[in-house]
Each structure stands twice: as C-alpha cells, then as structure tokens.
Specification:
single chain; 504 residues; mainly beta; six-stranded mixed sheet; 9% helix; 33% strand; Vps62
C-alpha cells in the first residue's frame, strides 16, 4: 500500500518499489592521488562503511580533493518480494566475478602514491552493475563487496532525467562519444513518490531555506508581483490589432494554453505610467515557487521564479574598457529563477542552481553565502537580473570582449522565505496547488524588438584608433546573440527546466 506524500520525506530511506535505498556518508579512504605541479588537487577513492544490516553496497565513491568530503553513495535492500516480475528473480545478486579496468601497476609514480586497482563487477545474466570497486591490492575483491541489480530495476545512465545514480564514479580505459556506460543507474518504481514532501513540509522548507535576493545598489529595474504589473497598466496585444486590452489583475482574460505562436503578447502601458512600471515595485515582489522531483525522486527541486517588468540595457566590456549601451539588451517582462535542491533522505539543502541568462551553475551548500541561519543570499545582476552566489563582476562572452554582469549587495532585497507564492507542484495531484491564471499564458511577456545594434556599435568602433577598428569589429561578431534582437520572453511554464531536472 502506498503512503501519502510526506510520510517518507527526510526519514533516511526511500522506497524504490522492490528496493529500499538509503545513503551512506561514512567512508574509508582506499587511495588518493595528488598530481605534482598541477592546479587541481587530484581525487580520492572511498569504500562505504557502517552499512546497516540487510543493506548492500552498490559501488564505491570518488571525489575531488578540492572539496570537503560531503558526498554519499546509495546502498539497497530488497523489500518487494511480492512484486517480483514473472522471472521471480531476486532484485539483488552477487557479481560472478570482476574485471580489472585500470591499475597503478603501469603508473610510473606508483611507489610515491601507493597502489590502486579499479574493478568492474561482472553481473549474472539478467543483472547490471551500478558501480565500481576500488582496492589497494591486486587480489580480486570479495563477491560480498557489492551487489548487482536486476535489469528491469535499472536505467541507462545516459537516459536523461530518469536514472538515479548510486553516487559512484565512472571509469574506462576506452570510451567513444555515444557509447553506453558500463554501469547502470537505478530506476525509481515508486510511482507515488512517497519520499517527496507534502504541502506543509514544502512551506517549512521554504521558511527554513528561502534565500534573500539582493538587487544591485544601482539597479533601476526592480521586481514586482505579477498582479501589480497587471494592475499598473500592462496590456495584452493580439497580432493585427492596433489597440491593446487591459489585463485583469489575476490574468483571467489572458488566453490560456496553446503554444507560443506569436498571436498574443504583453507590453507596458503606452501612457505616462510606462516609466514607473518599468521600475517595478519591490514592496509587492514575491517569489513564484514550482516544486518538483529531481534525480529520480531522491531530491526535491524548489524552483523560485523572479519577475521584473523590465530588463535593462547591457554594458560591453572590451579589455579594461566598459561601454554602457543605451538600448541594446533591454526588453519587457523578465523572468529569472534559481533552484534549491533538497535531499529527500534528510531534508538537507544540498545545492542551489543560479540561472544566468542562457546558462547557469550549481553551487554546493557549503560554498554559499548566508544572511541568516540556513538562508543563502542570491545576488541579482544589474539590469540583466542573472543570479550569482557571490558579489562581483561576471563576464559573458569571449576572453576579450563580452557583457558585464555586476552583482553586489544592495538595500533592495526580497526575502523569499516570507514573500513567496507556490504556483505548482504537480506530483501532489490535481487540485493540491491552485495554479494562477497567468501561469497558463504560453505566449510572450514582451513584444519582439529588433535593435539597431549596428548604429550603437559603429559609434564605439569610430571612436577607436584606426589600427584597432578591424580587430574590434571582428570581436563584436562574437558577442552573444541577444545583442542583436530580443523576442519577448515566455513565462515559467514555457521554459526548458519546467519539466524534468534542472540543466546546467
């Protein structure tokens, strides 16, 4: 019988159907390598220890020596004997032997760094290995060291967003692009996702971990709530119509569903309210929260969306010279986000994803800045509103010419642990969260703008010495494409990360 959502959250174990898994964070170091005269500090390989009775290791652990030891591997036991397939095979079995993948025997500095051997378990027919075994002697490891997993309980590790890594590493003496890895991931067959938090637990997580978003002290274009934007004069336009239609404060008169076909878009008011709406209203601002399972249901992603009525123009950095542009890069309706990844085993904040224009980065919890307790700081860059974990000047482009992203602590902040609105959590079931009307608007939150970028860039080039002009013109050709035009951005539900795991 399935439990309700939340009953399995942060209990230390997660049901996977026929398997139950838990994470091990205690390790015995088998081998560590620190390459001489290199910037990286090498890597260390570990064997999990203190595995509870009845659970079995699925592979060993590896991580860079640059970071504190904080990772984990999953161990598993069989619990669903009555759910076995028609083959009636157990979920876990011992390997029949091991294949030596690599060793330090041919490593010229083995006497300095010790010996190490990397073994791939050879599974019985109908089973797959999910991790490697590391030893410091050439003897074949014990068959009791790990277990292999029945085929139908695994996924290919190249199957995006479905497989659950057991936390081990991958190694091979030869692997071509497109080759399938020689280890598998686990498949979470618990369709009820019992380890995911319920609505009450989601609120508790946000109140406990919700970051404070800091906007640059020179930021002109601040966030607002969506209802404030609508009430302040935002207009809905339809292709072929000269005049727009005022939008209800809830967005109830926006066309719902469909696709981004260019038929409708939202724009600023075309009267004296235009400038004030561009500047936003930070008092009304709130974070819009989408909660979803990640990494096969072993983590929860709490995606926090920030809305700004306007995105400001860019500043070009050319060597040591900074050139602010007057229009290029600006657009109406800016949607940005960051994502909190929380462990469903423990309820611990694991990392935060900082979205930065067309990309972004994951930052581990121990590398974040905190304003209070477990509440991190998210720095929103000037004009562009990209998210960063630390203040500073960030650069987008080639190593010579590109766009500036300046992030700093300012007086304009939004505390997401207090000012938030949960807009979606599909795994909880239909009706658990009331999605706002505007979330169903799949078209653009701003008009399409084609910039006269060449005019502004030509002014820059003409001010340079003649001997530099050609090289600078060539460099401008390498600038990000958003310089040359901007389609109105779509809303959260049209973004690539709405479904599935957050991509880096």
């Amino acid at each position: 019988m399935y439990q309700e959502n939340g009953q399995g959250f942060a209990t230390g174990k997660i049901p996977f159907g026929e398997l139950e898994v838990l994470k091990i964070t205690k390790f015995e170091c088998i081998w560590s390598y620190n390459p001489p005269n290199e910037k990286t500090k090498g890597a260390a390989f570990y064997r999990p220890v203190d595995i509870p009775d009845g659970f079995f290791s699925l592979g060993h652990y590896c991580q860079s020596n640059d970071d504190p030891l904080r990772g984990f591997v999953l161990v598993a036991r069989e619990v669903g004997h009555n759910c076995r397939t028609i083959t009636n095979l157990p979920a876990l079995r011992k390997p029949i032997s091991y294949t030596l993948i690599w060793s330090t025997d041919d490593f010229s500095e083995e006497t300095r760094y010790g010996c190490c051997y990397f073994w791939l378990p050879l599974p019985p027919t109908g089973y797959k290995a999910t991790g490697f075994v590391v030893s410091n002697n050439p003897d074949t490891p014990s068959l009791e060291e790990v277990r292999c997993v029945r085929d139908d309980l695994t996924e290919s590790c190249q199957t995006y967003r479905k497989g659950v890594s057991v936390g081990t590493f991958f190694c091979s003496s030869h692997l071509s692009s497109g080759d399938e890895l020689n280890i598998a991931c686990l498949k979470n067959q618990d369709l009820a996702l019992q380890a995911m938090p319920n609505l009450e637990q989601i609120h508790a997580l946000i109140k406990h971990y919700g970051p404070t978003v800091s906007f640059h002290p020179d930021e002109r274009y601040l966030p607002s709530s969506v209802p404030w934007f609508f009430k302040s004069g935002a207009m809905l336009y339809r292709r072929g119509d000269v005049e727009g239609e005022a939008i209800d404060c809830t967005g109830s008169n926006l066309p719902n569903g469909g696709e981004n076909d260019g038929e409708y878009w939202i724009d600023l008011p075309d009267d004296d309210r235009n400038s004030s709406v561009k500047n936003g209203d930070i008092e009304s601002a709130e974070l819009y929260v989408h909660v979803k399972p990640a990494l096969g249901g072993t983590f929860t992603d709490i995606v926090m969306w920030v809305f700004c009525p306007f995105n400001g123009p860019v500043t070009i950095k050319f060597g040591m010279v900074n050139i602010p542009l007057s229009k290029v890069g600006q657009h109406v309706g800016d949607w940005e986000h960051f994502t909190l990844r929380v462990s469903n085993f423990s309820g611990e904040l694991w990392s935060i994803y900082f979205s930065q224009h067309s990309g972004g980065e994951w930052v581990n919890a121990y590398d974040l800045e905190y304003i209070e307790g477990n509440k991190a700081i998210v720095y929103s860059s000037k004009c562009g509103h990209a998210s960063f974990a630390h203040p500073g000047g960030y650069f987008q482009g080639s190593h010579v010419v590109g766009l500036r992203n300046d992030a700093a602590w300012g007086n304009n902040v939004v505390d997401s642990s207090v000012k938030y609105h949960i807009i979606a959590a599909e795994y909880l079931g239909e009706g658990s969260v009331a999605e706002p009307c505007w979330l169903q608007f799949m078209r653009e939150w701003g008009p399409t703008i084609v910039y006269n970028s060449k005019f502004e860039l030509d002014k820059i080039v003409s001010a340079l010495p003649i001997y530099l002009r050609l090289s600078v013109e060539n460099l401008f050709d390498k600038l990000p494409v958003e310089l040359y035009g901007e389609e109105g951005p779509t809303g959260p539900k049209e973004k690539n990360n709405w479904i599935g795991d957050e991509r880096c």
